[in-house]
Amino acid sequence: MDITLYENPFLERPKRHEIKILLTYAQYIELRTRVKGVLTPDPNMRDPEGYLIRSVYLDTEKEDAYYEKDSGVQHRNKFRIRAYNNDDSYIILENKEKIDDRISKSAARITRADYDAILAGDFTPLAAYDSPLCKEVLSLHASQGLSPKVIVEYYREAFTHPLSMVRITFDRMVAAGTNTLDMFDEELRTAPVYPQQEVILEVKYDSAFPMYLKQLLQNNGIKLAVSKFVLCSDYLKRNYIILR
Fold it and tell me: Which residues contact 218 (CB under 8 A, 6 or more apart)?
């Protein structure tokens, strides 16, 4: 089977530095105005209000990804299946690898039929792909029970600087799926993990972070140590929600 290995359609790049900052809603409004003055909206962001991202995160039976992140392990992997604007014609299986504050991604495009099979517990369609990532996910499912665990949903606004290779995103309305593990389910219900409408600012850059952008971001928010995957997993655990 032919496979599309891709660089993320919204210009994510491998082996980049990543910083996450939690903003109040008021800080977000002010900072977004300032960012718009110096950065360019991502060309894939057709709506100025951003685009919807939904991801189904996978984890092992022992919840290795959850506990590694929660305990601060420096080298870790997160496997997920992602779609944009609820479009099931473009579904991505992805691994986000992180070492300290540097990230890289490997990805493979899969079909809706493959996605449905995985949701039903059948990972065998991945064997047909000539992709190291697909083979790794298939192996982890067989050996460690890797399977869907939680849906993470949010709206993203993205801005870039073409010369400095900096990408800044604002992730709003971060929510966990509460009644299903199928991100395309028309009856999907979600619950916000930040009731006060806090926003997650993410900054990604290659090697040098321009000084004027550092100054722009100074005194805004607090550095965030946890991922959206952990935040949504914690919500389910606090509320004793078990999804099958």
Answer: none
